Amino acid sequence: MPHPQFAAELIERAKEKGPVTIGLAGAGQMGTDIVVQVAQMPGLRIGAISEVRPQAAIDAALLAGFDRSEIVTANSPVAIEAAIEAGKIAITEDLQALAAAGRIDAIIDATGNPNIGTLFALDVMRNGKHIVMLNVEADITIGRFLKEEARKAGVVYTGAAGDEPACTMEIIGFAQSLGFEIVAAGKGKNNPLKLDAMPADYQREAEERNMNARMLVEFVDGSKTAIEMVAIANATGLVPDVPGMHGPTATLQQLASVLCPKEDGGILNRKGVVDYSIGKGVAPGVFCIIKTRHPRILERMIDLKVGKGPYFTLYRPYHLTSLEVPLSAARAVLYKRADMQPLDHPVAEAVAVAKRPLAANETLGMIGETDYRGHAMTWEDARRSGAIPIGLAERAKVMRPLKAGELLTYDNCVPDDSMVVTQIRRRLDQSDGRFVTDAA
Description:
Helix content is 38%, strand content 17%. The chain has 440 residues and is an alpha/beta fold.
């Protein structure tokens, strides 16, 4: 969370060096939000947008208040730089041109595609720019590799403020700084859970919400929740308590008495877990269940009406998703600091489960489509199962018929080795001595 003087620092920085200039990859729902939000913020500006549908980027800029004369097409680094120097906003279809352009301080990846995000992040860092990954799908697949590449390049690799993982990290960091024990952390699920949700059934709702139906289904079928909870796990060491997590119907008032150990009346087999709730009053917030080790602090927490104890809920009642993301770019530039990064060694995995019967020789589609959904497991459980990370499921080939609900593994599916994200992940797994199979 920004300190009280952050806005003043951004204004001062703009006076001395010009505004923090952001490049953006993707002008979908969240990308458009970012463009509009940055236009309201002191000391920041969007310099360029890369989008395969140029009109979407133009529409985002117009919505943000740019005059049509201030929006220019620029498909080379030099042209993008010239547009920025002229005080205009550049629109390009070329991600490489965006990554290479000067006059850009940090770039936000809002593509949501693991392979595209991997290629783009590497290109951004090679060009000496900070990278903000709103692309959680890429982060949970090879984020630790990207973090190390950023270190080598002398830039910042960071998760995105406003997304639930980073918002949850704020509370976890606050609690850890005060010495509280972290019992559980997570989010309220924002959409009704339907494990077999299909895009065709959500087309109308998606249009009403200015969303892509595939993206909406990624939320509804639980994939996004699994991905986000795994991102938190791999940044903190917290783990899913059971495969798929519990996902109780606990209300906000019940969280601390439900997401606590069984011996104390809860549902957890252990402390230190990630989970979510579908109970009333939790979404759209994020939470952390804590316990104090000292009776005096317990007494004070009860006196402060935080809860009845011995477990307490710390709660952030909102996450502003894309609207907060520019703060991560600003902090990377001003402080050279990441809001969220994976640990060097993962503890959890988001894997893939068939949403429908799959036939041999099928080639799998994208997350949120008709083929599979996300499922959170510990790293050890995923290793023992030979499970394919969900970030490698797109374009994987099914090797034998699979039933709905069956786990996708290296034995029944083969990831697409032409994708860079697959190649990097295989090297990571081999260096760990994990997921080493004949397919690897």
